[in-house]
Amino acid sequence: KDHLFLDALRRFSRLQSVVVASVGLPRHIAHAILSVPRLRHLQIHYSLCLGSALHGGLTRASFPTPPQLVSFSKTRKDFSPHPKPNLDEGWLPVLIKSTSSTLGEIRLTGKEVPERVFHKNDWPHLRELIIRSARPVLRHPRSMTMLSVRSRVPNLRVLKLELAQHAQTERIPFWPQGWTPGFPWPDLEVLTVTYSDPDDEFLAHLPHTPRQLSLCCWPRHHILESHQKWASPIPTATEMPRILRRSTSNYPNQLTHLDNEFDSDAQDSLLVQHIGTSFPALCFLQF
Questions:
Q1: Is 2 left (phi over 0), alpha (psi -120 to 50) or beta?
Q2: Which of 183, 214, 182, 212 is nearest to 196 (CA)?
Q3: Please, which residues have CB within 8 angstroms of residue 246's CB and are 6 or more apart in sequence?
């Protein structure tokens, strides 16, 4: 089966991008896709592999020659769980680990984000990392902090950590107490973090390079609040100026884009005044 499907794919001599929109593929088809010689961009909507005993799973031995991926995306169309058959989620860390030397862009959505992969591999070309997760990965106090991968990901330009938290959980700071090595990405241009805490030191250590900053919730609070029973520890308008001051504490701020999600209170007007005074280069503002 493998060679027949692969031979068919090889007829597309210029094929570089593949989108898998189905809910999981048999292993021989997944293997054939990953063996396409010119494959550079792979997008998965739900899962790459079915996980039944009939189809088997995907292992590192499934593709002895790793695909030379430049971008990889595994997304989910919405926040709510999607009805799905038995899927093999073990393929995700296998694939990402095997392509770490070439990937320049990674977009991941879901509970199964393999955070430890980022600590055990080098990512010399990775410039864009976007993670949306239904649990607070990469900043849980029992997990290795995202900041510790600084030497593994030296060229990061875009970092979006859209990590969901329920209202009954405490906001977890990104900057560990006593962390001394400094901010790991001196050329960062775009930053998104969710559920910022006024006492978190993370923004106070930003370099002067960011042009786009998003301090938001995920899922977006104003959307899900009207559609399902979801509540999150969204910062208030009173807290937000304290959070924003940290991003301007070390350098004259050159932000041109600001996405600012907060819970309205009596300090709304003061917050808007603070934004206007603190960010004179602002061209785009979203509340």
A1: alpha
A2: 214
A3: 200, 201, 202, 203, 204
Distance CA 127, CA 4 (A): 36
- Tokens representing 257 are 């884009």
| pTM, two decimal places | 0.86
Q: Whole-angstrom Cα distance, residue 169 to residue 187? A: 32
Please choose, from the candidates 178, 176, 220, 167, the residue with its C-alpha nearest in 3D space to the C-alpha of residue 202.
176
Burial of residue 177 (number of CB atoms within 10 Å: 0-12, 13-18, 19+):
exposed
Helix (H) or strand (E) holding 194: strand 190-194
Q: Tokens 């002067």: give the residue.
A: 208
pLDDT tens digits, 228-282: 566 678 889 999 999 998 887 766 578 899 999 898 899 999 999 999 988 989 9
Contact 60, 98 (CB under 8 A): yes
